[in-house]
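Hi all, posting the design record for the shared folder.

TITLE: backbone redesign
STEP: 1 of 1
STRUCTURE INPUT:
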């Protein structure tokens, strides 16, 4: 039986007899359905199938990467504007007043006790925030 899309061509052997055959499928008459009868997806189907992945990547960028980058930019601005006599809180929760800033050594000296002139040295990156008058803790003892 002859298939309408496939023609069998005999393979010649050195002795002149046919030993096998080659399957010849003309491109113009090729099966429009892919292997196993599945339709080959078009451009629109590919875009729709990759759309959830693209949406997850965009959502991750908007929800994770962008806010973190903004937070880091604000922290760098805060550290760049740090000056003597600023009231600060370190990342470990120590309140103090900036006594000296050594940017090249990445070090800040904090005065933590005004009466005893107690100073500690911390890294510049350990400064969490600069306090203003409205956010300062009360220094009165009970």
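Okay, here is what came back for every position:
SEQUENCE:
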């Amino acid at each position: 039986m002859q298939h309408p899309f496939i023609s069998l061509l005999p393979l010649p052997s050195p002795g002149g007899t046919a030993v096998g055959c080659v399957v010849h499928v003309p491109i113009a008459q090729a099966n429009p359905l892919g292997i196993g009868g599945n339709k080959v997806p078009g451009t629109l189907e590919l875009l729709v199938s990759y759309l959830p992945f693209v949406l997850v990547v965009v959502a991750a960028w908007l929800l994770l990467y962008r806010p973190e980058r903004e937070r880091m930019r604000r922290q760098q601005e805060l550290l760049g504007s740090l000056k003597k006599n600023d009231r600060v809180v370190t990342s470990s929760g120590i309140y103090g007043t900036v006594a000296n800033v050594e940017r090249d050594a990445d070090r800040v000296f904090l005065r933590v006790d005004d009466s005893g002139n107690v100073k500690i040295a911390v890294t510049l990156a350990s400064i969490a925030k600069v306090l203003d008058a409205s956010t300062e803790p009360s220094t009165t003892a009970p």
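COMMENT: The helical segments are 43-80.
Let me know if anyone wants the other runs.
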